[in-house]
Design goal:
single chain; alpha+beta; Jelly Rolls; Arc Repressor Mutant, subunit A; four-stranded antiparallel sheet; 8 helices; 43% helix
């Protein structure tokens, strides 16, 4: 196993190489390879292991009660999968995770994760920080889902980007296809709404560049 690669993973940042080697030697943690299309975890399966993507990428999909499959997100290396759901009473994988390409991952049983975190304080802090960041992103995603219309979702997303850069000119951090998947809508519907918002002089678009022309109106859209 490439220890240098592990030090680049957020979970192992600030952890010395020799400490990582000692942890992996004691817990007998090994890499697991998954072929394209192979399932790493099923939706609603008990989350009894921590999966850390080392190389490759995984797509997370959720099936709703009607049987409709919704793509939630793509997870790229080096990142953990469902880290927030390893502990707790209802600790189940929230999505089905499928390899988008040949993928290498660390699959660490829950008890080994507990032992690992107790062995190194920096590792424990990293785990808590990653969990908190994940919870923040999840909260934001749920906030987006609370909006009923695509226009409201777009307004919230654009305003958030604007706040980060403190400017009225922003660049979408996702492709339009990726943004449509994030909102749970078709790309055609997203493109149509962007066009309508531009016609109404709320925004001006050029590829992934967006200029806010009426910020007050965008703010009114997301007020309940």
């Amino acid at each position: 196993m490439d220890i240098n690669l592990l030090t680049e993973i957020p979970l192992f940042q600030s952890v010395r190489k020799n400490e990582i080697e000692d942890i992996f030697a004691e817990l007998k943690i090994k890499e697991t390879k998954f072929k394209k299309g192979e399932i790493l975890a099923f939706q609603e399966e008990i989350c009894n292991r921590l999966i850390i993507i080392l190389t490759g990428s995984v797509k997370g999909e959720m099936t709703d009660p009607s049987g409709k499959v919704v793509k939630v997100e793509d997870i790229f290396a080096p990142n953990p999968l469902a880290i927030l759901f390893l502990f707790g009473e209802e600790n189940r994988f929230p999505v089905q995770a499928t390899a988008l390409e040949e993928t290498t991952a660390l699959v660490i049983p829950k008890q080994s994760v507990l032992r690992m975190l107790s062995m190194n304080e920096a590792l424990l802090k990293n785990y808590l920080d990653i969990s908190a960041n994940f919870a923040g992103r999840l909260s934001m995603k749920l906030h987006f889902m609370s909006f009923r219309t695509i226009r409201q979702k777009l307004a919230m997303y654009i305003l958030n980007l604007s706040q980060k850069v403190d400017a009225d000119s922003v660049v979408l951090d996702k492709t339009k296809t990726g943004l449509a998947e994030y909102f749970g809508v078709s790309r055609q519907s997203l493109e149509r709404e962007l066009t309508n918002m531009e016609k109404e002089k709320l925004i001006q678009t050029e590829k992934r560049n967006i200029l806010i022309k009426n910020k007050n109106k965008l703010i009114q859209l997301i007020k309940f």
